[in-house]
Each structure stands twice: as structure tokens, then as C-alpha cells.
Amino acid sequence: MKRILLLLVLSFLVQNYLSSQTLFRSGIFLHHSTGANIWGPNGASTTIPVQMTNYNTAHSYTGGNAVTMSEEWWAPSDNEWSTQHTFFEDPSLITGIGYYLLTNNVIVIKSCFPSSAIESIGQASDTLTPTYKSIYNYKWHWRHIIKVMQEHSNNFFAIWTNAPLVAGATNATEAMNSHRFCKWAKDTLAAGLDPIFGAFPPNVYVFDFFHKLTDANGFLMSQYAMSGSDSHPNTAATNLVAPQFVQEIFNAAIAYEAIHNGINEINNDNILVLENTPNPFSEYTNISFSIPQQTKVQLSIYNLNGVLVKQLLDEVKPKGLFAITFNSNEFENGTYFCQLKTNKTTITKKMLIVH
Predict the structure, then answer these.
(1) Is the peptide bond before 280 cis (omega within 30 degrees of 0)?
(2) Are 349 and 277 in contact (CB under 8 A)?
């Protein structure tokens, strides 16, 4: 009887705690015609709205826990990366990104296929002409856009790589330049390996649209194009990308809830507890955790940018309750995250160091 009562109390506390947390499950998709085709229906057998319904069903998400998204044609003129750069750095709550921040926890942006007409590798002087399409300029635009995204940690952002062009609408140099830029965006920048930008923010996800539809030379494959001269994605592209859009973006957004709120969804078949006291703390805090069965345990400290700064444990532990003292003398003031990871579950706790 006591065991049942304890489980009921724990369940109530967990549900009450989760209900007080910020959820990143609703938002807006800002796009032009390429995005509209992927949204659907576009003659396809599925759409992004249908895939959101499927996602909610698969995860038993209902009510306020369900994922939702609206879509909007943005901007009225064009959505080139130079336009996005200006939009994100515009402080106006009417003409800048601030217009969307308060009403959309998740914001997805993209450019259309004209962005794939990248003329050259480029150089630093290209930034004097922001609309010039070079790899150098595009990297410059993206670093600035994502820096603004990073500053708005109460929102989750997804940014698409370029929409590709068919061979009949571009040339080999432009196509390969677009491939190189998009590969950098996903494999270098998003991986935290760009020497200029550094650690990639946890509230941003790079959706590599370009490489879902291109061949090895960077051209939009004919089976995904409206025609040999029309680079709009066709029905087959919608059927391919719409499910990936929902899965990748909402998986990443929901994972960010753990970092933002300091707790992961609890798997009822594998309950773990992670606490640290005192919190905030100036020098020492006691980190305690319990595990329900023998498993490999990783106890790690991450900074606000998601960079691992201290590995406290990385070993197999038996079932039980454990405690470890963490000394913060080598760390600067600020917010950090303590993460407990086992073979099945991950819990993240926010910590504040104040010397």
C-alpha cells in the first residue's frame, strides 16, 4: 500500500512539475514557394500537418503537449540569406524577428532556391556587398543569424540549408558551391567545429534540406523537381521531406526542453532521480542520484553553450543511491547543466554558480 501511495505521489509531482515547464512544441514556419510545396498538399500522399498528427499519435501527445505549427509566406519581397540577416538583427518588434518571438516558441526559417546560385568561394570584402552570393558571404550571414538565435534561448529555431536548383537552372560551379556551403552548415557549424563561431547553441537545429534532394554534384535530382527547368519540389519531394521535417525538428525542439527546463521527460519504466544542493552555490554542491538497476552512468557538466566542461563519472554503477561533491572553483559565474545519462535515460539539471 505504501509503495502504491509513493508512486501516486511521485506521479503527481512529476506531472505537476512538467506542466509548469516551457514546452517547445508549437510555432511557425516562415517560407516562400519551396516551403509551401513541402508543407503540402502539393498532390502528395502526406503533408506536414498530417505528419504532425502522426507524430502526436506515435508519442501519445495530446492537448498542450501536442506538436502544432502554422505557416506563413515570409518575407513579402524575398527570403535570401542577406534578407534574413537584416531581419534577425532588426530591433523593431514590427519589422524584425521580435514580431514572432513572443507568440511562437518554435520558429523555422528557410531561403528559396535562388540562394543556391552561389557564384564563388568569395573573400572578406564580399561583406561590403551583402547580396553578393558567395560562400564567404553566406557563412557570414549564417553566423550573424545564429548568434541572434542563440541570444533568444526562450525560443527554439530551425534553419534550413539551401533549396537546390535543377541542372537546367544553374551551372556546375554554382551547384558545387551550394553543396560546399550546406555541408559546412551541417557538418562544421552545427557540429560546433567552426573556428569563428565556436560552440553551436542548443536552441538551434540545422535542417539539411539541400542534401535530401541533390545528387553528388549538388543538382536537384530530376525525380524531386517539377521539371527540368522548374526547381520547385514536386510530389515525391513532399512525400520524402515532410515526415523528416516533423521528426527532426520536433525531436530536436523537445530535446531542448530538457536543457531549457532542467529536466527530461521521465520514462516510467526507468525512473531516475538527480538533485544537487545547494543550488545556486558558490563553491561546493552535492550531486545525488539514484538508478533502478546496474548500468553505465555518465555524469557530466556542460556550460550554457552545451560544451562539456567536466566529466564527473563515466563508469558502470550498481542499483542504488549515490552522491558526489562538485567543486566549482575552476569555473566562472553563470548557468551550467549537470547531466546524468544511462543506457536508457538522460536527465539534465540546471545549476547556477555564484562566487
Answers:
(1) yes
(2) no
